[in-house]
Write a structure and sequence with these properties.
- The chain is built from four helices and two strands; from the N terminus they run αααββα.
- By secondary structure, the protein is mainly alpha-helical.
- It has one domain.
- A two-stranded antiparallel ribbon has the order 1-2.
- The model has no long low-confidence stretch (mean pLDDT 91).
């Protein structure tokens, strides 16, 4: 993944300099379904597909079909994974988060917090109770 990240950073920087584009302008091209057959835009899309596939492999989730393409997300059409893949990935990430939190809680149990009794509580001057 490191190599892919470095490739993305390097290729993206070269394209941005050559075209005099900022990052947002470049990704507007990447996410535009109107931009087809542009070798540089296709390269960025391809690297993102490779990164996504590497992440799925790292998690052991190669059974998820990512189905990259133009999909609507948050009322915008973008180059991304399919809605079904997005939901499955988020569900698995939540499950993984819960699993890790449970392990951490077992390894680092915290003493139960004990609130102050009414008698121990400081009462502001003039308080009725």
């Amino acid at each position: 993944m490191r190599q892919l990240g470095e490739q993305l950073d390097s290729d993206r920087r070269e394209i941005m300099l050559r075209r005099q584009l900022g990052l947002t302008a470049l990704y507007n091209l990447v996410n535009s379904p109107d931009v087809q057959g542009d070798a540089e835009v296709d390269l960025i899309r391809s690297i993102h597909v490779q990164i996504d596939e590497a992440v799925m492999e790292a998690y052991g989730w190669t059974d998820i079909s990512l189905e990259h393409g133009f999909h609507t997300y948050r009322q915008m059409e973008r180059w991304t994974v399919s809605p079904a893949a997005r939901v499955e990935i988020l569900d698995r990430l939540l499950e993984e988060n819960h699993r890790r939190a449970a392990i951490e809680a077992q390894q680092n149990p915290k003493p139960a917090k004990r609130g102050k009794s009414l008698e121990e509580s400081e009462k502001p001057e003039g308080a009725m109770f």
